[in-house]
Amino acid sequence: MRVTMSQVREAVRELMSEVYSEKQRRWACAQAGKSRKKFKGKPSLTKKEAGEMCGDTKISKKKK
């Protein structure tokens, strides 16, 4: 099976977007939803990205 560059890029993008620490999740949650208005500075994530990162992660699954 041959893997194309676009498949490799997509795999890397998926891995990079995963939140690996509670600190990262809290940072993303601060930019999501109603708290976005209170975020100090300019949010660096889109609303969709923030909501996705704030949601369920491998970290929260480990705690259950």
- Poorly predicted ranges (pLDDT <50, ≥5 residues)? none
Question: What is the helix tally?
Answer: 4
The backbone outline, from C-alpha atoms, is elongated
Number of domains: 1
Distance between the termini: 37 Å
Approximately how much beta-strand content do the residues carry?
A: under 5%
Task: Indicate the percent of residues in helices.
Answer: 55-70%
Major pleated sheet: none
* Strand count: 0
Look at the structure and give the mean pLDDT.
76
- Which radius of gyration do the C-alpha atoms yield? 14 Å
Key descriptive features of the protein:
4 helices; 64 residues; 56% helix
Short description:
With 64 residues, this protein is mainly alpha-helical. Helix content is 56%, strand content 0%.
Please explain how this structure is put together:
This protein has helices at residues 5-17, 22-30, 47-54, 58-63. By secondary structure, the protein is mainly alpha-helical. It has one domain (5-63). Helix 2 (22-30) packs antiparallel against helix 3. The radius of gyration is 14 Å and the shape is elongated. It starts with a helix and ends with a helix. The mean pLDDT is 76.
Write the layout of secondary structure elements.
Blueprint: H1 5-17, H2 22-30, H3 47-54, H4 58-63
